[in-house]
Amino acid sequence: MRSSLSRVATTIVVGLLFTACATTPSASVSLPTASATPSIVVSPASATPSIVVSPAPSATPSASTVLTPKPTPPPAANGWPYSISDSGWVFGPDGTIYVLAPDAQGAYWGTLVALDAAGHVKPGWPVEARRGSAFGSPAVGPDGSLYIEERGGPGVGNVVHRIGATGQELPGWPFTLPADYACPLGAPYDTDDPRTAAADDPCYPPGLEIAPNGTAYLIDQRPAGALLAIGPSGKVMPGWPIGLDDQDWQYQQVGSDGTVFLVRRPIGTPIWDELRGLVDSDAELWAFGPDGKLRSGWPVPVPNIRGFLLGPQGTSIVWSLIDDRGELCPGPRRTLFTVLGLDGRTLPGWPRGSTGYASFPVVGADGTVYYVSATGKVYAHDRAGEVKAGWPVAVPGAGGGCGPESPYLAPDGTIYVMGDEVVALTPDGRSHPGWPYRPAGQLIGPCLDSECYGGHGAPSFGPDGTVYLVVFHTDPTGTRAEVVALDRQGQLKPGWPYRVPFDAKTVSVGVDVAPDGRVVVRGGYSPLVLLALDPDGTLSE
Q1: Which distant-in-sequence residues (6+ apart) come within 8 Å of 441 by Cβ?
Q2: Positive or negative CA dihedral for 133, 135, 137, 139?
Q3: Per-residue pLDDT at 201
Q4: Cα separation values, 398 from 91, 175, 206, Å
Q5: Which of 112, 251, 296, 494 has its CA 20 to 30 A from that of 356?
Q6: How far is CA 439 from CA 81, 165, 420, in A?
Q7: Least confident range of 200-204, 212-216, 258-262, 514-518
Q8: What is the pTM of this model?
Q9: What secondary structure does DSSP assign to 407-445, as a single string?
Q10: Up-side HSE of residue 2: CA atoms within 13 Å toward CB?
Q11: Counting beta carbons within 10 angstroms of the beta carbon of residue 346, is it exposed (0 to 12), middle (13 to 18) or buried (19 or more)?
């Protein structure tokens, strides 16, 4: 699973919120030999896995691995905006915002903070990693508990925590990771480290995904690593871990039934060819069932894959760019969309192609595949691959400087497309009453890089169907960003817009909606600034 420099040129679009890295060495953790768990080891010369026996990791917590929450400081008079030097963050199902931050000594991602609706630290929080270790890869389970990996140095070890709403470890946790999941001494992990298996092989912490039943899946990014499944009780699931061969395994996604999908490539691919551009001929998509066994019909060849998403009824939609000669931006000769069934077979009527560069797709609850073509038209293909009646729909300006941007699918099935105006389409291709929305300012924010191809900001959707957008206004004093709230008829709601309290010419601005309906405005990266608004446009309290 070595990483190659050529992989940097490949854009893969998948739904991960965090890429976690640490700066401390890991401990040597031995596996118990009293019991054994069958695992699958894939031979590089064959697509057929063989069954071998691998010892199971320990799931017994020790006193040194259990987290101890810090005393909660008294709340400030005003919790918003909340500013932190460097952070990743994620929502809990009740609207809690979990923020990763440096600890008191400045260690990267050494503290986990939980913020309430008013921006105050919740009782029982923050939680600090042990000295010499750091957090990474947080994910929220179906019950609202927080799963998070903690990576330590010698004598500290590597564990996965499952933390409840009060900041306490849940029974049966933490889970002690095997030593094979540890990165070697050397930091940072996102740069080449000659002490790893190859001179150009950076070491990444395990990827963490949570299935709907609460099972945590981790993939080890080391050469000849493994895929591990930890049940909600903190024990290794039967049939796991799965040994993976010394190839490049990436882009883990977990289906609603617990199937784990991974892309496998030969080390050193994709490669750059002067005539064909990026060449990725040997990529494969693999699927492992909840029992740890390779699903029948898999792996499936997916040459030139640049991303995939999971659809209804166990389908997988593969997005491939053919003869991509783009450098800063994709520039393929053709975009290919392929829909695979749970058995790995291509569904009848697929694949379907689009000339030039077409956007990454979205998929509806009925299996309809939507995307924006290179000519700025929105297409809708049914499960049989046919273009649906009423489609395509032309949207002027649908795309940024790097080409077409993906449409957005609201929970009620409305398809939103960002262009010169905001278009809202029904599943049969008609415009919703009151739309399109024509903003007074710009939907594309200012460029913050020297070579920048700006794109539209992503909309967010409230539980009542409200659409939230960021609109930019430029004047001699700077760039002003406003959050607007539009009702189902495309009309501005009372109490809006909300003027963001910082200069958007120097700070990137985005908007998200928490599960409880609050609107969270984010600005910048380091520092990261967060503030939360109620649906009426006032600061949350």
Answers
A1: 471, 472, 473, 474, 482
A2: positive
A3: 46
A4: 30, 47, 36
A5: 251
A6: 26, 40, 9
A7: 200-204
A8: 0.83
A9: -EE-TTS-EEEESSSEEEE-TTSPBPTT--B--SSBSBP
A10: 19
A11: middle
Q: Which helix (H) or strand (E) holds 100?
A: strand 97-101
Cα distances (angstroms) measured from residue 486 to each of 397, 465, 483: 20, 9, 10
- Please state, in angstroms and rounded to a whole number, the distance separating the CA atoms of residues 175 and 60: 7
User: Cα separation of 468 and 459, whole Å?
Assistant: 6
Contact 322, 337 (CB under 8 A): no
Alpha helices, DSSP H, located in 360-504: none
pLDDT digits (tens, 9 = 90+) for 304-346: 999 999 999 899 999 999 999 988 889 999 999 999 999 999 9
- Number of CB atoms found within 10 A of residue 366's CB: 12
Closest listed residue to residue 386, CA positions, set 361, 407, 406, 369:
369
Region 130-152 average pLDDT: 87
Residues 436-446, mean pLDDT to the nearest whole number: 91
Distance in angstroms (rounded) separating the CA atoms of residues 385 and 348: 8
Question: Is residue 216 within 8 Å of residue 229, measured between CB atoms?
Answer: yes
- Write the pLDDT tens digit of every residue in 12-29: 333 333 333 333 333 322
Query: Would you report the helix, strand and coil content of the chain in percent, each value rounded to 5?
Result: 5, 35, 60
- Give 82's strand partners: 530
89-103, 226-240, 420-434: which has the minimum mean pLDDT? 89-103
pLDDT the model gives residue 154: 52
**Higher pLDDT pick, 199 / 338:** 338
| Backbone phi and psi for residue 159, each to the nearest 5 degrees, phi listed first | -140, 165
Burial of 286 (0-12, 13-18, 19+ CB in 10 A): buried
Q: CA distances (Å), 78 to each of 74, 90, 352, in order? A: 12, 21, 53
d(CA 14, CA 8) in angstroms, rounded, equals: 15
CA dihedral sign of residues 7, 9, 10, 11: positive
What pLDDT score was predicted for residue 526? 72
pLDDT, mean of residues 201-230: 79
Cβ neighbours of residue 490 closer than 8 Å, sequence gap 6 or more: 422, 424, 432, 434, 435, 436, 437
Mean pLDDT is highest, among 74-78, 110-114, 298-302, 444-448, for: 298-302
Cα–Cα distance measured from residue 313 to residue 364, given in angstroms and rounded to the nearest whole number: 11
**CB burial class (10 A; 0-12, 13-18, 19+) of residue 55?**
middle
Question: Quick one: which of 448, 447, 457 has its CA closest to 482?
Answer: 457
